[in-house]
Amino acid sequence: MKITRRDFGLAAAAALLAPRPARAAATERPIDLILAPTNLGLRPENGAQPGTWQAPRVLMEAGLREALNAHEVLRLPRPLYEFEAQPRTRIRNGRTIRAFSFTLAEHVKDRLAAARFPVIVGGDCSILLGGLYGLRLAGGRGLVHVDGHSDFVQEQSYATPETLGSAAGMDLALASGRGEPLLADWPDVGVLAADADIVQVGERERDDPQFAHFYGDLLETEITQIPVQEAKAAGIGATAQKVIARLEARGLDRAWLHVDLDVLDERVMDAVDSPGRPGFDYGELAGLVRALLATGRIAGANFAIYDPERDPGHRHAPRIVECIAAGLKAPGVD
């Protein structure tokens, strides 16, 4: 029986706000692509590794560099996936994820220092940690977490002698300082994001009867939460304004944007480990990203979880490229 991230987490655990004149929109800075071919944060399926590590290559073949007019492309080597527990951690590949996050962070920090807009393309959701860490090292703070799941699994949901935790299902918990210090406490910055500096957009299971049992502590935090049902009912413009208002209220001028493509409705794109509905369509996701970037308050971004092995013929890849490009292009350009 295949166990998805959602199953594991629950069962085991039209005008938009304009940018201020003094702050350049993110899309005015050259885009640098950082390709992160990793599957470290996901559980194996039927004894095999997940295929998310192939996503950067497939998206590049589908024209991602050209669509973004990327200034530079950095291809990182694929980190080694291990099936067995690593020493002194109950997080699968935890030590490798930490090392890979250090590498990502250095590249993000360097590109921010060069006035570039770093875009990490993964790979699984554990890439959020390295991107956000690089932002913090560069003096930024804050996180907009666009994801079909809150990814708030914590140690009590997996820490048994037989069970390893999967960082792709706990990336928001780790980013907010919850979980093993290995991935929740980082040199020079400590916790990557304070609860009050986080906005989560897209959770589709908050009304599930088991949600409160496994993720109930999320509801008690200062994390701003906009379930996908609320976002779709309000409209992307109003949703973007709510996110932007929170960034402004917290004085977040250089925040990180995390996009898990499973926030797309499974009827639109199902090549992810935990597809579901409801979710955004491509236009809604691109519109949300574009509105956030237009404020100049987003310093960098990552896109994660597309699995080409779940996409025969890679039919979804061109649409994903179009969506990312539509989100990252200059506002008002159609």
Describe the overall structure:
With 334 residues, this protein is of the alpha/beta class. The chain is built from twelve helices and eight strands. The chain has an eight-stranded parallel beta sheet with strand order 2-1-3-8-7-4-5-6, sandwiched between helices. Helix 11 links the parallel strand 7 and strand 8 (298-304). The longest helix is centred in the N-terminal third of the chain and has 20 residues, at 94-113. The termini are far apart.
Features:
8 strands, Arginase, Chain A, alpha/beta, eight-stranded parallel sheet, 334 residues, single chain
Rounded average pLDDT: 90
Strands side by side in the biggest sheet: 2-1-3-8-7-4-5-6
Specify Rg, calculated over alpha carbons: 18 Å
DSSP strand count: 8
Tally of helical runs: 12
- Specify the structural class: alpha/beta
Give the SSE order as H and E letters. Answer: HEHHEHEHEHHEHEHHEHEH
Distance between the termini: 44 Å
Q: Poorly predicted ranges (pLDDT <50, ≥5 residues)?
A: 7-22, 330-334
Strand content: 5-15%
Form type = globular
Please tell me the total number of domains.
Answer: 1
Give the CATH H-level superfamily: Ureohydrolase domain
CATH fold category name = Arginase, Chain A
Helix content estimate: 25-40%
CATH architecture: 3-Layer(aba) Sandwich
Largest sheet: 8 strands, parallel
